[in-house]
């Protein structure tokens, strides 16, 4: 994790620990981490991506299928969705269509051996670690810029 992120977290802890209390501090710290929703029916792929994302300082939520993904987006909108296409219950194309209809600005990156249109970006499986890190850097910059405006 970057030193600046640690300094920011530390500043929150020092400046707000008495005024906000422990639960509010945890909530504020979570707000600083970009959230990624990883949607894949393959446990190994989903858990590996989640581990990499956590190590890179992202907050991760996971969904095993398209329906679960849409429910999680409704609960809490992530900063990025990593979406597999071939899944049970509701496939990735249907999820992408629903997200484009209800949340057109939400970045969605498709993870699949099959190219897809309508997504923000596309990562071919097996996913290149270097390409994933490049994409995450772009997403982190977008989130930081958006949060600086609000």
Superfamily (CATH H level) name of the largest domain: Response regulator
Which stretches of 5+ consecutive residues score pLDDT under 50?
A: 1-7, 25-29
Helix content: 55-70%
What does the radius of gyration come to? 16 Å
Shape assignment: globular
How many beta-strand elements?
Answer: 5
Main β-sheet, in a few words?
A: 5 strands, parallel
CATH class of the largest domain: Alpha Beta
Strand content: 15-25%
Could you give the distance between the termini? 24 Å
Could you tell me the CATH topology label of the largest domain. Answer: Rossmann fold
Mean pLDDT figure: 82
Describe this structure in words.
- With 150 residues, this protein is of the alpha/beta class.
- The protein has two domains: 1-32, no CATH class; 34-149, Rossmann fold, CATH 3.40.50.
- It has six helices and five strands.
- It has helices at residues 3-20, 22-32, 43-55, 66-75, 92-102, 129-149, and strands spanning 35-39, 59-63, 80-84, 108-112, 121-124.
- Strands 2-1-3-4-5 form a five-stranded parallel beta sheet, with helices on both faces.
- Helix 1 (3-20) runs antiparallel to helix 2 and helix 4 runs parallel beside helix 5.
What descriptors fit this protein?
single chain; Rossmann fold; 150 residues; 56% helix; alpha/beta; 2 domains; 5-stranded parallel β-sheet
Short description:
With 150 residues, the protein is an alpha/beta fold. The chain is built from six helices and five strands; from the N terminus they run H-H-E-H-E-H-E-H-E-E-H. It has helices at 3-20, 22-32, 43-55, 66-75, 92-102, 129-149, and strands at 35-39, 59-63, 80-84, 108-112, 121-124.
């Amino acid at each position: 994790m970057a030193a600046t992120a640690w300094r920011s977290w530390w500043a929150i802890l020092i400046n707000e620990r008495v005024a906000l209390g422990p639960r509010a501090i945890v909530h504020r710290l979570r707000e600083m981490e970009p959230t990624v929703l990883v949607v894949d029916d393959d446990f190994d792929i989903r858990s590996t991506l989640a581990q990499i994302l956590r190590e890179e300082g992202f907050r991760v939520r996971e969904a095993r299928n398209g329906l679960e993904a849409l429910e999680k987006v409704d609960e809490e909108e992530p900063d990025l969705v990593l979406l597999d296409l071939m899944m049970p219950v509701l496939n990735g194309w249907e999820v992408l269509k629903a997200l484009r209809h209800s949340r057109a600005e939400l970045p969605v990156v498709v993870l699949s051996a099959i190219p897809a249109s309508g997504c923000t970006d596309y990562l071919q499986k097996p996913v290149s670690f270097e390409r994933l890190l490049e994409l995450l850097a772009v997403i982190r910059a977008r989130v930081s810029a958006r949060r600086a405006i609000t």
